[in-house]
């Protein structure tokens, strides 16, 4: 997939967000690991499809506490979610699913879907009563059955937009 560099980002920070080795990212773009990246530069993220080439996308509304699944631009399913509490707000912006981990353990429930922002993801929960509330440390929580259903439908590279 292609990615447009944002102000302040480095090759290492982008590699960390997309969970790939900085050396692999540098090689895919004919750069050195220490190369300066001007904002607006387009780089290639190896191993992920272009999100626009995929039929699905995900839209998260923090205020409505809903996650919408879209196929070819049409809403096909909505799921209730939990979002970050006041000091740990769920980040807004445009991300992609970069990897997944079944049964990650602890509070993450039955599935973890990593977002292209280090430390954030869409995941299940071991506390289903939290769904519908602002209680997480910034991640998007779903019922386990819902995150398993979602993860079976979407693939890595799927676009995820999060709005206030």
TrEMBL record:
It comes from the Bacteria. The keyword Hydrolase applies. The active site is at residues 123, 139. Pathway: Cell wall biogenesis; peptidoglycan biosynthesis. One of its GO terms (cellular component) is extracellular region. One of its GO terms (molecular function) is peptidoglycan L,D-transpeptidase activity. Residues 1-45 form the LysM domain. GO terms for biological process: cell wall organization; peptidoglycan-protein cross-linking; regulation of cell shape. Residues 56-163 form the L,D-TPase catalytic domain. Signal peptide: none annotated. It holds the Pfam family LysM. Keywords: Cell shape, Cell wall biogenesis/degradation, Glycosyltransferase, Hydrolase, Peptidoglycan synthesis, Transferase. InterPro entries: LD-transpeptidase, LD_TPept_cat_dom, LysM, LysM_dom_sf, Transpep_catalytic_dom. Belongs to the YkuD family. This is L,D-transpeptidase family protein.
């Amino acid at each position: 997939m292609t990615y447009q560099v944002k102000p302040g980002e480095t090759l290492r920070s982008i590699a960390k967000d997309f969970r790939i080795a900085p050396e692999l990212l540098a090689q895919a773009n004919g750069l050195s690991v220490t190369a300066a990246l001007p904002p607006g530069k387009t780089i290639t993220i190896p191993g992920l499809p272009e999100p626009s080439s995929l039929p699905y996308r995900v839209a998260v509304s923090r205020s409505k506490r809903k996650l919408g699944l879209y196929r070819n631009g049409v809403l096909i399913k909505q799921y209730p979610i939990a979002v970050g509490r006041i000091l740990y707000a769920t980040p807004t912006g445009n991300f992609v699913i970069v990897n997944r981990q079944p049964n990650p353990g602890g509070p993450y429930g039955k599935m973890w879907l990593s977002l292209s922002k280090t430390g954030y993801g869409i995941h299940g929960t071991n506390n289903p009563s939290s769904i519908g509330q602002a209680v997480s440390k910034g991640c998007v929580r779903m019922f386990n059955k819902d995150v398993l259903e979602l993860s079976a439908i979407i693939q890595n590279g799927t676009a995820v937009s999060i709005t206030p």
